[in-house]
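<backbone_tokenisation>
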Amino acid sequence: MQYVVKMAIKVKCPTCGRECEYSDKNPYRPFCCERCRLIDLGAWAEGKYSIKDKPMEGDDDLDISADALATGKLAAHKADLEK
């Protein structure tokens, strides 16, 4: 019979920086406590985290004004808007 010994990994809490155990024993992992987990959740909810991306090629060719969205008519090219 073999026994598997799981070593607890120590990580820094992403919110406060305290060292905490990353294992099944810590229900808030990778955070050190519920408070830090909730602080991070609140930051996500407020939009403080975002993934930066460059605009896709051709995105500026679309007319997505309020009028276009209301009527459901999107102009495909800038030239179409000038007509």
Notes: The first helix runs from residue 34 to 45.
